[in-house]
Amino acid sequence: MFEYLWRVPLGFVAGVIGSMIGLGGGFVVVPVLTFFGYSPTLAASDSLFAAFSNSVASTASYARQKRIVYSLGIKLALISIPGTIIGAYISDAVSPPLFKLLFGAVLVASGVYIYMRRKMEAREHNLSKQIVVLAVAASFFAGIISSFFGIGGGTVFVPLMVVAIGLSMKLAAPTSQFILMFAAASGMIVHSLLGHPNYYEAGMLSIGSFVGGLVGSRLSTRVNEGKLRLFVVIVLGITAVKLVFDAVTAHA
């Protein structure tokens, strides 16, 4: 049991950062586990337990702050669930080098989103037929990457809600955490049925992530977002470079 304890602080750090920016903490947990030699399916499935725990804590806190748009969140969450099932199944078919290469690309996309976050401005609410079709397709895709990479789909959901639908960032990040609660739960169940996770490790990550989610949601209105955003972008950039380097050298 003691050899698993280092997952608790890892989950906590991921939970704090993930809760504050609405992405879930998987983009911190999965690279670390990958660097320790975890297979793609094990890293993703363990991370989903932490993402679920983090989203539950964050949602509870954000609900008290009345910052969740439930009507929109439930619809996007339900659409994402079929994608999470597909993501869990295809994770078995991907080699570790390819997983690292793809995950590096996801981290770059996450870094771009975080850097551009302040520049995203809510517009007038737009639920035209075209936006509804976009929302359905984006939510399904977010479900796939959520379960495949174990990171939650915040990199898709938050820009979708802010740029396309017109939700304010103050509401989009909490609503994203609400959606991730369903997406992570669905992916977690499918991964478990396929025998992917290590429950001791996942449990330790979940404990840290739950506490981190509570702390992060409270800090979200107090911390200097500019400094946090810059720090996270730098870390994501370095991590992406390391993942791509490992993937390329594995084929050399």
Q: Which key features would you list for this structure?
A:
single chain; 252 residues; mainly alpha; 79% helix; 0% strand
Rg (CA only): 17 Å
- Taken from the alpha-carbon principal axes, the silhouette is globular
Kindly report how far apart the N and C termini lie.
37 Å
What's the rounded overall pLDDT mean?
85
Number of domains: 1
Strand count? 0
Q: Number of DSSP helices?
A: 10
Helix content: over 70%
H-E string: HHHHHHHHHH
Low-confidence stretches: none
* Percent strand: under 5%
| Biggest pleated-sheet summary | none
Derived from helix and strand composition plus strand pairing, the structural class reads mainly alpha
Overview of this protein structure:
The chain has about 250 residues and is mostly helical. The protein has one domain (about 5-250). It has ten helices and no strands. It has helices spanning about 5-20, 25-35, 40-65, 70-90, 95-115, 130-150, 155-165, 170-195, 200-220, 225-250. α1 packs across α9 (about 200-220) and α6 packs across α8 (about 170-195). The longest helix has 27 residues, at about 225-250. The chain is globular and about 45 Å long. About 55% of the residues are buried.
Write the layout of secondary structure elements.
Elements: H1 7-21, H2 26-35, H3 40-64, H4 70-90, H5 96-116, H6 129-149, H7 154-165, H8 169-193, H9 199-219, H10 225-251
Helix pairs in contact: 1-2, 1-3, 1-9, 2-3, 3-6, 3-8, 3-9, 4-6, 4-8, 5-10, 6-7, 6-8, 7-8
Short recap of the structure:
By secondary structure, the chain is mostly helical. The protein has helices at residues 7-21, 26-35, 40-64, 70-90, 96-116, 129-149, 154-165, 169-193, 199-219, 225-251.
